[in-house]
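Appendix C: a fully annotated inverse folding record. The material below is reproduced so that readers can follow the format used throughout the book. The structure is listed first as tokens, followed by the designed sequence.
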């Protein structure tokens, strides 16, 4: 994702292709991201009765907004994780 962000902000050059220092750690980062999404999803879709009155999680409007944002983040992460499989379609 790092090289893509650099390209989006205008940085370019052959040196971007050599940003592979963290590639060996990719499975760990993916596992951490999926675990964090699992915990966040569990907290977002738990019953509202577990929230005390006055907390943000008890307000239906905020719960809907957080859930929509969560779904958007999950879709973005799925796109990023699936990019190695769909990238050959564009070459």
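Designed amino acids, in order:
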């Amino acid at each position: 994702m790092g090289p893509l962000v650099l390209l989006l902000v205008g940085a370019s050059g052959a040196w971007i292709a050599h940003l592979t220092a963290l590639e060996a750690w990719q499975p760990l980062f993916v596992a951490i991201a999926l675990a964090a999404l699992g915990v966040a999803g569990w907290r977002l879709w738990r019953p509202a009765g577990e929230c005390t009155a006055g907390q943000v999680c008890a307000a239906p409007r905020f719960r809907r907004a957080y859930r929509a944002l969560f779904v958007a983040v999950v879709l973005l992460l799925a796109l990023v994780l699936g990019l190695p499989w769909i990238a050959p379609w564009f070459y």
